[in-house]
Amino acid sequence: MNHPAPPALARRPFPTDLLDKLRSAFGDRVSTSEAVRAHHGRDESRFDPQLPDAVVFAQNTEEVQSIVKLCAQYGVPIIPYGNGSSLEGHLLAVQGGVSIDLSQMNRVLSINAEDLTVTVEPGISRKALNEALRDTGLFFPIDPGADASIGGMSATRASGTNAVRYGTMRENVLGLTAVLADGRVIKTGTRARKSSAGYDLTRLFVGSEGTLGVITEITVRLYPQPEAVSAAVCAFPSMAEAVRTVIETIQMGVPIARVEFIDSLAVRAINRHSNLTLREKHTLFFEFHGTEAGVAEQAQLVQELAAQNGGEGFEWATRPEDRSRLWNARHSAYFAMLQLRPGCRAVTTDVCVPISRLAECVVETEADLKASPLPCPIVGHVGDGNFHVAILIDPDKPEEIEEAERLNHLIVQRAIRMDGTCTGEHGVGLHKMDFLVEEHGADTVDTMRAIKHALDPHNLMNPGKIFSWAA
Ligand SMILES: Cc1cc2nc3c(=O)[nH]c(=O)nc-3n(C[C@H](O)[C@H](O)[C@H](O)COP(=O)(O)OP(=O)(O)OC[C@H]3O[C@@H](n4cnc5c(N)ncnc54)[C@H](O)[C@@H]3O)c2cc1C
After folding, report:
1. Which residue, 309, 321, 327, 423, is most buried by CB atoms nearer than 10 A?
2. Where's the FAD-binding PCMH-type domain (predicted)?
3. 118 and 213 in one domain?
């Protein structure tokens, strides 16, 4: 591969003194091996890795604090590392520095079942958290396709298939502990359901992509396991009809738990990868949560809407094992799509538009994709107005990268014109920096920059991400 990530920034010096001090404090939890650094200097984007100088595996807030203080003393960048599943170049050490791996900070600190909250360390993964909650009758609903860490999910303001009903990390993080660039430890929020006490620093850190501090504890909302759950799939003759069904479902206020769009090419990929036999047509996956009666009522209404829009038969997955198979297949869609073209990489788009503009946006996008020589399956959390095109490129062909970026620009600019966003859930990282100004305007991005300058005056925290240091 040869696809350096923009922009090319100068690496900063990494003093041996700092390495000696880290080694004396953390012993063999400091690694400078090529393999470990390479693992931490990449993500799931198409960009070539850019390696940190060292990786330190932290075990508690005090350790994070002491790593940050040492790095601050030597002016060395710090890149928090969760599970490495981000998609936009978030983890690339564009100026070198120390990657703080938080995977060993993976404890559940307290479950407050009566208040429906849990406090965790950042390295716990979403699946491990739900495993720990198994006997409580509660669950944590946010489910990106990867088994991401709760810290990484907070830092990218992630969501997933359940967001249409349960919200994103923005709605579900109640408070957090963070180590700032100068080593101070702050706590934001409380376990109270609401608060008007001052600036909302929790929301500032949620989505900050490691650029403001290292999150070391997080309190999130939990939900009771629904009494009844049922799932269904339905195929449609066209994208427009599938999307219209979703729009009408949302506009009628049906409290649907999940509604995912999978285009015919993505269905083919999923069938092959997960050994399913779905009809290879544009398809919606639905899930309904509630009481037995509530679920039946929601399902009937949506079934009628689908039928009016040309939906070809609802197939129900009522047994838990059938539902898991369906949703596991959906969660594996990214890797299934990669297998459509062995050896390829995906440039993944992530636009999100107001639901009223979704049909128009998807249909116009489909026309762009049809005119392109690249395979471009589409999947989407369409209940939120969010969809992803996986543009499959041969990473050794510059003309394919150029074509993928051309498509990405078209799609993003259309979404912005429709009052939408360049990224519904993956974040900005390196790849979407230019779009941020287009979306928000220079003054708004300058306001973000002023916050960064105030909290991290030496640009130590994950430098070179979200926006440039200087206007
Ligand atoms: C197959 C696949 C499917 C995906 N599906 C979805 C999806 O449906 N929805 C979605 O939202 N995303 C999705 N993603 C993207 C990715 O899973 C999310 O962005 C996720 O939130 C990243 O979590 P992570 O633990 O892997 O973080 P990492 O990739 O390790 O880090 C992501 C960013 O957060 C920062 N960070 C990590 N931990 C901390 C911390 N404790 N404190 C401060 N900053 C921190 C890092 O510095 C980096 O900037 C998908 C990715 C893949 C590969």
Report:
1. 423
2. 48-225
3. yes
Report the nearest atom of ligand 1 relative to the CA of 86.
29
Which of 335, 354, 387 lies at the terminal end of a domain, its last residue? Answer: 335
| Mean pLDDT over the full length of the chain | 95
Is there an atom of ligand 1 within 6 Å of 425 CB?
A: yes
Burial-class residue 309 by CB neighbours within 10 Å (0-12, 13-18, 19+).
buried
Average pLDDT of span 59-78: 98
Among 129, 317, 139, 310, which residue's Cα sits nearest to residue 235? 310
CATH number for the domain that contains residue 27: 3.30.43.10
Whole-model pTM over 0.85:
yes
pLDDT digits (tens, 9 = 90+) for 379-413: 999 999 999 999 999 999 999 999 999 999 999 99
Atom of ligand 1 nearest to the CA of 168: 11
Give the E-state strand segments of 40-145 in sequence order: 54-57, 78-81, 98-101, 108-112, 117-120, 138-139
Is the CB–ligand 1 distance for residue 43 below 6 Å?
yes
Query: What's the 163 CA to ligand 1 centre distance in angstroms?
Result: 16
Q: Is residue 397 part of a domain?
A: yes
Same domain, 211 and 126: yes
Reported as a pLDDT band with limits 50, 70 and 90, residue 317 is confident
Q: Are both 135 and 195 inside the same structural domain? A: yes
State which H helix or E strand residue 180 sits in: strand 173-180
Who contacts 470 (Cβ-Cβ below 8 Å, separation ≥6)? Answer: none
The atom of ligand 1 lying closest to the CA of 151 is: 41
CA of 386 to the centre of ligand 1 (A): 17
Domain interval for residue 120: 108-224
Question: φ and ψ at 420, to 5 degrees?
Answer: -105, -160
Supply the pLDDT for residue 1.
Answer: 42
Q: Which residue, among 157, 148, 181, 74, has the nearest Cα to 462 in the 3D structure? A: 181
Which atom, in ligand 1's list, is nearest to the CA of 425? 11
Burial class (CB in 10 A: 0-12, 13-18, 19+), 1: exposed
Which atom of ligand 1 is nearest the CA belonging to 149? 25
Nearest to 351 by CA among 296, 276, 289, 414: 414
**Nearest Cα residue to atom 27 of ligand 1:** 152
How is the beta sheet containing 54-57 ordered, strand by strand? 30-31, 54-57, 98-101, 78-81
Of the residues 103, 135, 165, the one at which a domain ends: 103
Q: What one-letter code names the amino acid at 71?
A: C
